[in-house]
Amino acid sequence: MAQETWKNYRENKSFKPPPLKGIRVLEVCTILLGPAGPAFLGAMGAEVIKCEIPPRGDTVRQMVPFGHFFRDQAPAAVHINTNKYWLGLDLHKPEAQKIFCELAAKSDIVEDNMRPGTMERWNVGYRQLKEINPGIIYISKNGFGQWGQYAEENRPSNDGAAQALSGYAWMSSFPGRPPLKSRLYVCDTYGALMGELAVLAALHYRGKTGKGQFIELSQTENIMRTMSWIWPYQQITGKVARPKGNRDVSVCPADTFRCADDTFMAIAAPAPEEFKGLCTAMGKLELAEDPRFKDHLTRLKEKNATAILKIIAAWVRTKKPEEVEQLAKRYGFAASRVYNSKDVVEDAHFRERGFITKIDDPFLGPYDEYEFPVMMSKSPPKVKWSVRAVGFDNEYIMKHFLDKSEDDIKELYQCGALGKWADVQGCRPPSHWDGKAGIIKARD
Amino acid sequence: MSFISLAAMKKAARTSKTKQQSWSDWVRERDDPRIAHTKPEALDDITVLDLSSKSFAGCLCSSLLAEFGAEVLRIEPPEGDFLRICTPYGMLHKGEGLNYLTEGRNKFHITLDLSRPEGREILKDLVTHADVLIETYRPGIMDELGIGYEQLKEINPGLIFASITGYGQFGPMSQSRMPDYDNIAQARSGIQSGTGEVMPEGKSYNECPWAVPTKAGSWIAWSVAGTFMAVGILAALYWREITGEGQALDVASGEAYARLDDYAALWYYDTGIIAERFGNLDVCAFLYCFAPTKDGAVFLGGLRLEMWQAFVDMVGKWDEWGAASWTSLAPFMQREEQLKWASLIFEETRKYTNEELVRMSIEYAKKGRLAPITPVVAPVCSPEEAMKDANWLDRGIFIPIQDPLYGELIAAQAQHKMTESPIRTKWVCRPVGYDNEYIYPKYLGWRPSKLKELKQKGVI
User: Fold this and answer.
1) Does residue A248 lie in a domain region?
2) B47-259+396-457 has which CATH code?
3) CATH code (residue A306)
4) A36 and A108, same structural domain?
5) Looking at the structure, do residues A115 and A57 belong to the same domain, yes or no?
6) What's the gap in Å between the CA of A410 and the closest CA on chain B?
7) pLDDT higher than 60, residue A282
8) What ipTM describes this predicted complex?
9) CA-based nearest residue to A395, from A406, A379, A384
10) Averaged over A275-303, what is the pLDDT?
C-alpha cells in the first residue's frame, strides 16, 4: 500500500505543484542561520527574494572549505540558498528602503538575522512594515534574541557561540576530554528550521484572523530545547549532566563500535526483541536472560551498560562492517556504518529516493545536492536552483514584482539603491557563464 | 533584569507612544513567554493523532504542534510506549523516564491496542475527527493492520498522514527490519564522521579511544527529523486549505539530519575530498574555533576579515602579526595556515580567563580601533552553567513548569517567541491512559459502561 502511495515519487515530482505556492518571502539574511530558513520555504515552493548589500553580498559567499570555490561559488552558499531570487539592494540608501517597503507590501513573510534594531535603523523594521502590511509575518533570528542582557550588550554571535553557551558542545565529547564543536553548523540550520515552524504556524493563525505578527528566535535557546533530559536531570539530582562520548545514556545498548577493519559502526538494540536479536546475532543468547541485562531500565544502569557495551565492542572488533549490517537486517536490530560524505553522496538508497539529487542549474551547471527531506505525496518540495551572483535577478524582480520601467531601474542603479556583483570569487558568475544562462525573462 | 508585570506593561502602553519606546522593550512587552498564556493559540483548530512508537522524533513532532495549541491525542498501547523507559541511566521521576517527561507536553494520553481488530476500528473512528496522524512504525506495518494511508484516506480524504522512520517509506532500505534510533541516524548522516578529535600523530585508537568520529550528546537527529516533519505538516495543512486535499508525508531520520549538513556533499562532488575530522577548528570557516583559556575554553568567531583583525587587535598583536596589511580571509582558510594560526591564537587565549575574554570583546566593540566591529567570544559552558545563566533565566527558557502530576519541573521551552500566538507549556506529561475518560467520551460519545468494558477487555 505504501508502495502505491510512493510509486514513481522521484520521477513524477516535477509534474506536481509544491505546497507553499503563492507565498512570498523577503529576506535580509546572512551566513547560515538567516538564509537557511527561507531556503526551506523556497524548497517548498515559496517565492523567496534574497536582498543582499551589493557588490559583495552575503558573508557566506566567502565560506569555502580550505579555500575551495566551486565554479567560483562558495560551497556553503550553494547549499543554503535553495530556489531564491537574488536582489542586490543597498538598504543604507533611502531609495532602497522604499523599494523594500514596496516589496514588503506584496509579501507574506519577512526574515532577517541582523543584530536587534538594525532593520529599524534602515526604516524597514517590523514596526515600520506592519504599518504598510498589517498581515506581515516577520521573524528575526540571532544568537541572543531581541531583549535581555546579552542582546542589550549587542554581543555578536554565531553557530559556534550557541554550541558553546548552551552546553551542547560540552555534552558532545568524551569524558575527560575538552568539549567538542560539531562539524555541523547545527545551531544555525536547526535554528533556521525551528524558525520556519513558527512562521508557518503564524501563517495558519493569519489565515484564521488576518493578523500578522513578530517572531524572534535565539539559536542558543533553540538548541537547548533539544537537550531534553539534561535539564530535569540537573534540577532533580542537583548534579551536572556529563558527556559520555558515543554512548547514548538513555538507550542501551546504543554506541559506536570499531570493526575489524578499523571502520566504525553504530548499533542500537534497546527494545526487548531487538536486544534478543543482537544477542542471537552475537551467538550469545544467554545474555538476554542475564539478570544484569534482563530489561531496559536495568541495562541502562551505569555498571550494566558498561558491561554489555564492552561485550558488544569485543564482538564487533572481530567483524567486518557488512557482516554486522547483514546480521542487523536479519535479526531486527539497528546498525549503520558511520557514513562519510562520500558514502552519503553515493548511497544507492538515498539516490533512489531522490534525497541525493542531481541538480541541473543553467547558471552553475550540474551538481549533487540534498533534497528537502520531507517527501510529500501530493505536493512534493524540490530543489531547483541555488546561488546566483549578487543582484543577478534585479531586473526581473523590479519588473515582475514592482512593475518598474527601464527608466526607474536605471535611476535606482544610478543612486546606488540597486547594484550587482563585485568581480571577486564568491560574488561573481562562474567563469564559464555566457552572460545569459539563468537569467529569468520578465513576464508580461 | 527584573520581570515586567502585566500592570506595568499596560501602564507603559498607555503612557508611551510606541515610537519613543526602544525596540527591545517594545518586543518584550509583547512576546515575553510569561504572558504567553494570555494570548490566542495558532493551531487550536487542529486535531492530531500521535501513534508514534519508540521514537523521540514522533514525540517531539507532536509536542511542537501541541505547544501551538493543537489538540494532540497521544495514543499508546495499554502498556505504554517504550520511549517512556528510554531515560538516562535508567532514572525515573515519579514513574516516568526523563526524556518522555519533557516531551509529553500538552498532550492528551490515551491507550489503544492496535493489534486487535476492535482497537483498529476505534482508531478509524478517531481518524474521522483528525487533521493529522503521526506514526513511526516500520514501513508496511500500518498497511498490514489495515490502517495505512491508502486505507485511512478513504475514511478521511483530508487526512495528513505523517510517517517518520529510519529509512523512509520507499527505496531499497525501507523494507529492512531495522528500527530507527538517534545514534544510527547520526552515524548515517555523514556528520558524525567529520566531527571529533584528530588522532595525534603516531598514536592509535587503543591509546586514544576518544580520537574517533563523535556523535552529538543530544538526540539531535531525532529532534531534527521531528521538527522537519512538523514543518512539513504545517505546509501540508496550508496546501489542504487551498486544495482540500490531504496527503502522506515521509521523513527518514538520517536524511533529515544530513540535510542540515552544509558544504560537504558539494565539496566531495567537486573535488572528491571527504570532510574529515578537524577537531575544534573548522574546515569551512575562519576565525571559527574553540580556544583553550586559563579556566576552560571559549568559542572565537569572526567570519569577516575585520572581525579577525579585531581579535588580533584585542589581544595586542596588531603590529606583531601585521594585521594592517591583510586584505582577505582566504589565505587563512587553508589547512596548514589554520593549524599555524591556531597555535598562535591559543598561546594568547591561554593568558586570560573566559570572563576576561568575553569582557574584552564587549569593550572592544565600544573603544577598539575597529569598533563597533568585534570578534565573537563565547564561553564554552557546561549545561549546569547554562541553566544558571541569568540571561537565559530572564528570557524564560527555564521557567519551571507547575505540573499538577509531576510537580515543579524544568524542561526547556519558549524556543521561539511570538507577539500574537506564542507557544506555551500547559503540562509536561501524563501517565499512560490518563485521559481515556475524557477523550473517548468527547470524541466518540462513549458512556462509562463502554469505557469499563473496553478496559476490561484490554483494548484500552
Assistant:
1) no
2) 3.40.50.10540
3) 3.30.1540.10
4) yes
5) yes
6) 31
7) yes
8) 0.98
9) A406
10) 98
What residues contact residue A374 under an 8 Å CB cut-off, 6+ apart?
Answer: A381, B228, B229, B231, B232, B235, B249, B250, B251, B256
φ and ψ at residue B336, rounded to 5 degrees: -65, -40
How close A266 comes to chain B (CA, Å)? 6
One domain for residues A262 and A159: no
Answer yes or no: do A268 and B179 touch at CB < 8 A. Answer: yes
pLDDT at A138: 98
Query: Closest chain B residue to A138 measured between Cα atoms?
Result: B418
Task: Give the one of A167, A339, A356 whose C-beta lies nearest to B189's C-beta.
Answer: A339
C-alpha cell at A147: 531583549
Nearest to B239 among A9, A19, A62 (CB): A19
Q: Do B392 and A224 touch (CB under 8 A)?
A: yes
**What's the whole-model pTM score?**
0.97
On whether both A141 and A79 belong to a single domain, the answer is yes
Burial per residue of B345-379, b for 16 or more beta-carbon CB atoms within 10 angstroms, e otherwise: bbebbeebebebbbebbeebbeebebeebbbbbbb
Any idea what the CATH number is for the domain that residue A166 is in? 3.40.50.10540
Closest CA to B226 of B134, B138, B140: B134
Is 50 exceeded by the pLDDT of residue A301? yes
Domain residue limits at A310: 254-344
**Residue A231 within any structural domain of the chain:** no
The residue type found at B17 is K
pLDDT at B177: 87
In this structure, the answer to whether residues A201 and A301 fall within a common structural domain is no
A443 inside domain: no
8 A C-beta contact, residue A381 and residue A13: no
Tell me if A141 sits within 8 A of A37, measured CB to CB: yes
Strands A356-361 and A365-370: antiparallel
Residue B209's φ and ψ, nearest 5 degrees, are -65, -5
| Cβ atoms of B430 and B108 closer than 8 Å | yes
Residues of A with Cβ-Cβ distance to B171 under 8 angstroms:
349-350, 352-353
Nearest-neighbour CA in chain A from B319: distance (Å)? 25
Q: Are residues A138 and A261 in the same domain?
A: no
Q: Is the pLDDT of residue A183 over 80?
A: yes
Nearest to B295 by CA among B349, B376, B360, B348: B349
A234 found inside a domain: no
- Mean pLDDT for chain A? 96
The beta-carbon neighbor of B394 closest among A63, A149, A341 is: A149
- Name residue B135's amino acid: E
Same domain? For A138 and A218 the reply is: yes
CA dihedral B322, B327, B329, B334 (to 10 degrees): -70
Q: What cell does A79 get?
A: 547549499
CA of B450, closest CA in chain A: separation in Å?
A: 33
Total domains in chain A come to 2
Same domain, A274 and A218: no
